[in-house]
Design brief:
By secondary structure, the protein is mostly helical. The protein is 83% helix and 0% strand.
């Protein structure tokens, strides 16, 4: 929990620092890169990790190591053609024109490293090593921010997006080192010399396909707006959106970690006990608690906006307060929606859950394009609000039999 909180603080500091030193255009470009890195694990995992991670529970370390190695080889084999395809598509929209050739290589390296480290994190949770999993996640996602901010503050020539990405890659490399040092007693020589078994890895791939589409829909639904807005807007305007979205998502992560995740095991237990009355009471209570907690934090965040603008040295952001408010409203709705999603999961409504996750990016694109036709920049946050509201309504509707039971 403390590492998650420290990581949240680090990402908040990074966004304010980048806006202050590199400008909103760099914020917009970094937001696109971050979105691509966030989507990559869902795209390459192909849903296989759900079955494999269940099998890892209680398995010998040699077997777990072999499965990790086979998955790493599989990711590398699939990543190269997908990376080339992605670069060619992004170049058509001039997303990469702001980056030098070697920096594009750094971005590709960050993507594949994040995919592999995500696989490691999931495996460590499966083998009951949560502390190591959180440590790897922290070094992979947040640790590098502190040396970057500190050193670039002392040496202004390091204040560039190129150096930021280089520090990010360095943090991921350090996460790999932490992983291998912590598990140095594993028989790595035998693991890497053993025969690769891709047939086992792809066993039941058809059953994993829907999981893959669900994960991909959930991840894409969070970030597809940036790519669509990148087509309509310049990088500086996109940077305004990404800056406010990053602040709003801080509220989401704090409430999700402190409230939503804690409710999940209790919802599952009550659903298994078939105590529908108690399940209904808990579900409604948690929705209410999440709504109140998120609303209070969102109000505090919005009230602190002038202080944030001052630290970022971006007074021009004051002209877009309405956009910030819209995104915060969307975050509150999204948190309530996530409680409903846990309710669907606990009740075994997997098809409804998967269908909504797959449809979310379609909702997002539809609303963004519709709102952009109005030609008013500060209204683009309404697309996020509409998407969250529709998803929430659909999920709650899926729970109607549990919610109306008395």
């Amino acid at each position: 929990m403390s590492m998650r909180g420290l990581g949240l603080v680090a990402r908040f500091v990074l966004m304010v620092y980048v806006a202050r030193t590199l400008g909103l255009q760099a914020v917009g470009l970094f937001g696109l890169i971050y979105a691509g890195v966030a989507i990559a694990p869902s795209l390459l995992n192909m849903g296989i990790h759900y079955r494999l991670n269940r099998l890892m529970v209680g398995a010998p370390v040699y077997t777990v190591g072999r499965w990790l190695r086979d998955r790493a080889f599989m990711h590398l084999a699939f990543f190269v053609p997908l990376a080339l395809l992605g670069i060619s598509i992004l170049s058509q929209f001039q997303y990469l024109d702001q980056l030098e050739g070697w920096v594009v290589g750094v971005v590709v390296s960050i993507c594949i490293a994040d995919v592999l480290l995500n696989e490691i994190n999931l495996a460590l949770v499966a083998i009951a090593r949560p502390i190591l999993s959180n440590s790897v996640f922290f070094f992979r996602s947040a640790f590098w921010i502190f040396p970057f901010v500190g050193l670039s503050g002392l040496y202004p020539h390091l204040q560039s997006l190129d150096m930021l990405l280089s520090f990010w890659l360095g943090g991921q490399i350090f996460a790999f080192i932490v992983f291998f040092v912590a598990l140095r007693d594993w028989p790595w020589a035998r693991i890497f010399c053993s025969r690769t078994d891709f047939a086992f890895i792809f066993l039941d791939f058809g059953k994993s396909l829907m999981v893959c589409l669900s994960d991909l829909g959930a991840a894409t639904g969070q970030f597809v707006d940036r790519f669509i807005l990148g087509v309509f807007l310049d990088f500086e305007s996109l940077g305004v959106y990404v800056f406010f979205w990053s602040l709003a998502i801080g509220v989401y992560q704090l409430v999700y970690t402190a409230v939503v995740q804690i409710a999940f095991p209790r919802l599952v237990d009550l659903a298994r006990d078939s105590d529908r009355s108690a399940f209904r009471c808990l579900l409604v209570s948690e929705m209410r608690n999440v709504f109140l907690a998120a609303s209070i934090l969102a109000a505090i965040m919005f009230s602190s906006r002038d202080i944030i603008y001052m630290f970022a040295k971006r007074p021009e952001l004051m002209a877009h307060d309405w956009l910030f408010a819209e995104l915060l409203v969307g975050i509150v709705i999204k948190l309530v929606s996530d409680v409903a999603a846990y309710g669907l999961y606990a009740c075994g409504h997997d098809r409804m859950l998967v269908a909504v996750n797959i449809m979310t990016p379609l909702f997002s694109v539809l609303f963004i394009v519709g709102v952009m036709q109005l030609g008013h920049f500060d209204l683009i946050g309404m697309a996020f609000v509409f998407t969250c509201l529709l998803v929430c309504v659909v999920r709650v509707y899926g729970l109607k039999s549990e919610l109306i039971y008395s």
